[in-house]
Amino acid sequence: MTISALLAALVPLVADLSRELPECERYRRLLQAVRALFPCDAVALLRLEGEWLVPLAMDGLSSDALGRRFRVDAHPRLQMLLQASQPMLFPPGSDLPDPYDGLIDGLCGQLEVHDCMGCALAIEGQAWGLLTLDALVPGRFTPAHLAALQAFADLAAATVAATVRINRLAERVENEHLRAERYRLAASGAASAHQLMGHSPAMQQLLQEIELVGPSDLTVLISGETGVGKELVARALHARSGRAERPLVIVNCAALPDTLVESELFGHVRGAFTGAVQERQGKFEWADGGTLFLDEVGELPLPVQAKLLRVLQSGQLQRLGSDREHHVDVRLVVASNRDLADEVRAGRMRADIYHRLSVYPLPVPPLRERGRDVLLLSGFFLEENRNRLGLGSLRLDREAQAALLAYDWPGNVRELEHLIGRSVLKALGRHRPRPRILSLTAADLGLPEPGLSSGGPKGVLPSAPPAPAGPVGQSLRASVQAFERQWVQDCLQRHDYHWAAAARELQLDRANLARLAKRLGISPNRSAKK
């Protein structure tokens, strides 16, 4: 390592410190300088967020690596680097697992990382993150490289500090407490704590709109297919609002029995109905000062919609069985996978409540429109499974990545999450004992070949009966309802009208299936089972 080589890499970075570069470009140039200066196969810049290290930029690692979140206490090398006061070089024979084992880009085999060094980055005396360098060839890094990294570390920290200052001035930095809390919840396995992530244009547009409408008090209607992450969007809106320190109350309207919807939302007094032994606040009062998220709002009965309209107009509500007025200050966010305008035309939703709910429509793109985001999300779910199962390293081989990119994802992100979870178990079942690096193959994923129907033997959705031919002149809506009626009726008959079993096959909530059957005019029983 010569002085001239070190200066050649450092001078452009020094010049960049005085320029207002975008965050991604500043980090790209930093990693580019690392690759020019050190003989590494991969380099990564990670930011410390609570108990997690989150990749901001990577070079030389597989596409899914950028979506991973590394829990510090689960990765001893990363933990040691954070605690060290100077850069560290791990010996090639170290038996400590490397978080990037199997993730070096462009490799067909399961090669382990054999040489690793890195340094902690600090800003204003506080730990900010890590810069890590990895090589596949043992002994690639020398003491001279470690000394050069020591000189490079201060400038790398200055580059990061310049970016952070620019972000703070532009008010684009999230509240660190909220970010740390989100990753803490993710560690506990809470599905709702997953982070919104994606680099596709569709996802970037969604994130920009969340930044725009989040700080306001406008009512937001989140629309999108099942499994796209509508609850995550609601949580992001709340986190960016002035109500972020107040409660976020979530209600799944589809899971509420018709007889209890009004009580759940508005509360009740003692004796209001059988079983009401004491006075109880509803979800609107729980959310006072904060945000109320009504998921599947299209399931609300028409009488409840009328009372909801009054709360939206005046902030006044009455508990069930009471004449007393209660005032609430609530920001309402709602979601539906239905077209609510169609629900209005069909008479299942009031037009006035629809216009009150759709002040700011916010569509969430399906996963099939998000391109390579599927690999980013796969990396996130792979790291979750690696932590949960105590695996050394978990990766996708090339064929598995191609299969994920070719699939159309009718169940969206939720389907991807479940697919990764069961595929990991399948892959584990093929290996005794557990390998240090576990690779998922296309066979483990079990996805249909491109161009084949997802309802075939390898599909994830139940196959549908042949669509009945509607009478000539019959409207599209009438034909669709006839098809739905026949499909649900056939499913109920197969399960002898056992509604829980039928709901599982149709992938519906049991209460939602009951409402659908009622709307379609299907008899509630045949053999007294429901």
Radius of gyration: 27 Å
Overall number of strands: 15
Distance between the termini: 76 Å
- Low-confidence stretches at least 5 residues in length (pLDDT < 50)? 169-193, 452-464
Q: Indicate the mean pLDDT.
A: 81
- By helix and strand content, what is the structural category? alpha/beta
Fraction of helical residues: 40-55%
Overall geometry comes to: globular
What is the topology, as strand order, of the major beta sheet?
3-2-1-6-5-4
- Tally the helices: 19
Strand content: 5-15%
Major sheet description: 6 strands, antiparallel
Topology of helices and strands:
Blueprint: H1 3-16, H2 23-37, E1 42-49, E2 52-59, E3 70-71, H3 76-83, E4 88-90, E5 115-123, E6 126-135, H4 143-169, H5 176-187, H6 201-213, E7 220-223, H7 230-239, E8 248-252, H8 261-266, H9 283-286, E9 291-295, H10 302-314, E10 316-318, E11 325-327, E12 331-336, H11 340-345, H12 351-357, E13 360-363, H13 373-389, E14 393-396, H14 398-406, H15 412-429, E15 437-440, H16 442-445, H17 476-494, H18 499-506, H19 510-520
Parallel strand pairs: 7-12, 7-13, 8-9, 9-12, 14-15
Antiparallel strand pairs: 1-2, 1-6, 2-3, 4-5, 5-6, 10-11
Helix pairs in contact: 1-2, 1-4, 2-4, 13-15, 17-18
